[in-house]
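Quick one: structure for this chain?
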Amino acid sequence: MSLSSLVLAIVDMKLLLLRGYGKDKAANIVSERHSLSRRDRAILLKILHSPEEMSSYINKRASEDDINNVKLSIDGYNVLITIEAMLNEKPVVICDDRVLRDLTLAYGSYRPNEKTSRAIELLLSTIAKLRPSYTIIVYDAPVSHSGELAALTRRIMKEKGLTGVALTSRSPDKDSALLGDVVASSDVVVLKYAKRFIDIPSIIAREMRYNKVIDLSFLDEQLKHFTRSLYKVEEQLYKANIELLSQLRNV
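Got it. Here's what it folds into:
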């Protein structure tokens, strides 16, 4: 897909979401209109959100100061893969809900690599600065090498003097969301269950001064102005032509 088509697809889908379309319906319409691949469609679903999702995430978002002396849970693969994307100098996105996400789609095929230890080091160093009372890092048990990754994480946690545990789970979304007072994740399923969440990769990106960041955080407010104008046009059309429109319905 060309850059211009991608931009148009992003704008079209966001407008549909603001107009009340469900995410799947909006993605289907935009995919057909712009001949998107399955990957492109999945990326749109990952980076764009409905007004209801936006409102929920804003209310649940915790600040860095909020983590001091509380129990913090980490959605292990979700956070780790985003950090690795930055270490590999891949683009990441500040989405319309102001949460930083990578463009990786199939974390089930994840394998530890030469950047994994460094990514865990960065994650745990950031956690140490936030000073939670206890940290629980949850990896998805069905994903290969999760046990090894949890063991590596526990070893580095011990080296850094962090109080907590790294474990595997067969229900990582719920466990990540519910085991801590605050969860670190950008996964919409986890955020749905969570009481509060924090965006740790965005903290790391800021400290790294990472410059391969696509910023879509302006989209929601800018396009809301456009949709308000559309609603005004519809209202004027209705008021000015209510009688004719009524007759048209009966033709």
